């Protein structure tokens, strides 16, 4: 199976406890053409594994994609998960909660989107927005963070108890790369819709916000629910790493086609 080996994959991933000092530019000895070819070779295997997951209807997969603006969450979803059967795949994009969502527990809107057995759910932005962005936007105070982190840990443990395998991915880009991607959006009229006034202010505060996220990742990186820190300055590397992480989750399931006894025989069918 053509995913990256565990040795190379782990070497490419950053330390979630050292986000602020990590290198979003690292290439890990890989190159564009080779990575694209390896991803193309891996995708049919991922499709087959998704079919097995759907046929078995035992476990499910939940992928959380987090990262600063322009980190490539949408792109990773398109390039890694494109081609999977939409029957067993749901994608949820979470923006700032509305007034009704503010009136309930911050995890409730995420609970409503959990995958059923056999399914894969992708969260574009994660419940950790309730620890980071809610603080930046003034909806919570710093004193509220430990309690929310405790609720998140309990939520992740609950997912495991329900047979939902969680993959937490943080896409890391540099401030210079974010600025370059914002510039491209400004220069391309087809991408103006992606911009909002807050993007400029967030970019100005990039270092401060990433320092805060570094603390969140360090506090919530647990053996039973680890963060995977993916260098994302290079989109082709980002895609291969995310696909390899997904493949590793499938491998751990050790899936086989279910073989229940047929409900009727060939003779009965021929006589029908």
Automatic annotation (TrEMBL):
GO terms for molecular function: polyphosphate kinase activity. Gene3D superfamilies: P-loop containing nucleotide triphosphate hydrolases (3.40.50.300). The keyword Zinc-finger does not apply. The keyword Kinase applies. Keywords: Kinase, Transferase. It comes from the Bacteria. Residues 30-251 form the Polyphosphate kinase-2-related domain. Belongs to the polyphosphate kinase 2 (PPK2) family. Class I subfamily. This is Polyphosphate kinase 2, PPK2 family.
């Amino acid at each position: 199976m053509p995913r990256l080996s565990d040795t190379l994959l782990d070497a490419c991933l950053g330390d979630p406890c050292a986000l602020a000092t990590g290198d979003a530019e690292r290439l890990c000895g890989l190159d564009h053409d080779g990575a694209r070819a390896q991803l193309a070779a891996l995708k049919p295997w991922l499709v087959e594994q998704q079919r097995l997951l759907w046929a078995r209807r035992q476990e499910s997969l939940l992928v959380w994609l987090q990262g600063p603006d322009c980190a490539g969450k949408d792109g990773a979803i398109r390039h890694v998960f494109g081609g999977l059967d939409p029957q067993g795949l749901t994608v949820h994009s979470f923006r700032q909660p509305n007034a009704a969502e503010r009136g309930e527990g911050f995890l409730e809107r995420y609970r409503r989107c959990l995958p059923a057995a056999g399914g894969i759910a992708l969260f574009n932005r994660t419940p950790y927005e309730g620890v980071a962005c809610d603080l930046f936007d003034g909806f919570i105070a710093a004193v509220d963070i430990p309690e929310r982190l405790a609720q998140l840990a309990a939520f992740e443990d609950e997912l495991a108890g329900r047979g939902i395998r969680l993959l937490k991915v943080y896409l890391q880009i540099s401030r210079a790369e974010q600025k370059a991607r914002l510039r491209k959006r400004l220069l391309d009229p087809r991408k103006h819709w992606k911009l909002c006034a807050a993007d400029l202010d967030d970019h100005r505060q990039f270092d401060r916000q990433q320092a805060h996220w570094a603390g969140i990742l360090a506090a919530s990186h647990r053996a039973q629910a680890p963060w995977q820190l993916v260098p994302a300055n290079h989109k082709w590397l980002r895609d291969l790493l995310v696909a390899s992480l997904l493949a590793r989750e499938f491998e751990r399931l050790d899936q086989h086609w279910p073989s229940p006894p047929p409900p009727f025989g060939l003779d009965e069918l021929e006589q029908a």
